[in-house]
Amino acid sequence: MSGADAEFARKLFAGPCDFFWGTGDIKSLPPESLPEIAFVGRSNAGKSSLINALTGRKTVARVSNTPGRTREINFFNLGGKLILTDLPGYGYAKASKQLAMEWQNTIFAYLCGRATLRRVALLIDSRRGVMDTDRAVMELLDRAAVSYGMVLTKTDELKPAEIDAALTAVAAEARKHTPALAEIHATSSRNGEGLTGLRQSIAKLAKP
User: Fold this and answer.
1) Neighbouring-strand partners of residue 151
2) Is residue 208 part of a domain?
3) Total count of domains within the chain
4) Could you say which of 20, 66, 126, 191 is the most buried, measured as most Cβ atoms within 10 Å of its Cβ?
5) How confident is the model at residue 62 (pLDDT cuts 50, 70, 90)?
6) Coil, strand or helix: which one is 106?
7) Is residue 75 part of a domain?
8) Is residue 183 part of a domain?
9) Would you say 130 and 98 are in contact if contact means Cβ atoms under 8 Å apart?
10) What is the tens place of the pLDDT at every residue in 118-164?
11) Is 169 exposed, middle or buried (0-12, 13-18, 19+ CB in 10 A)?
């Protein structure tokens, strides 16, 4: 990436980022406008924390210590150039089977029907690696034919060798799925590791 592109990414994420829409009903999504980047992952994988860290704020996306709390799709306008979408977490053990099915139907409808969706950031808790529920969501993304990139979270809790092993394992999993990008980001919302590279990757998709 050129210096100009890197500077654009820095300014984009340092600029305004405002919540403007939230809904649990696929029939009441906001009008399509800017390119959208959706963040999806297991409950408590750190989606809201990552969005806050990327934008340099603490309260853009609401962080909950209770897994499975977020039920809505939340939309954030990033500097009038991009929409960041925070999708409900999946795989929470106490969620009912009906709720799990509702999640799948809602998210699949969003993934298939959103013309402005440019990419999905699939968050994987680096401490746990790719789990069966993650693989199920990857298959969902495969069927929706949506490009997605894997993002390892919470790497501050691992040793360097463990991070390398986690990256290798996730890369092997990604190679099994055509829509999955080869580029994988290892990040920590706590110490900022990997955030610059992820910002630059996302900024490439922004409205010129």
Assistant:
1) 123, 185
2) no
3) 1
4) 126
5) low
6) helix
7) yes
8) yes
9) no
10) 999 999 999 999 998 899 889 989 998 999 999 999 999 999 999 99
11) middle
Range of the domain at 56: 3-203
Output phi, psi for 123, to 5 deg: -85, 130
Which residues, including other chains, have CB under 8 Å from residue 128's CB and lie 6 or more apart? none
DSSP3 helix / strand / coil % (the chain, rounded to 5): 40, 25, 40
Q: Are 160 and 130 in contact (CB under 8 A)?
A: no
Position 157, amino acid:
E
Q: Which CATH number characterizes residue 127's domain?
A: 3.40.50.300
Gap between the Cα atoms of 155 and 36, Å rounded: 26
Any domain includes 142: yes
Contact 74, 61 (CB under 8 A): yes
Structural tokens at position 200: 């630059």
Closest CA to 124 of 137, 111, 108: 137
Please write the tens of the pLDDT for every residue from 179-190: 999 999 999 999
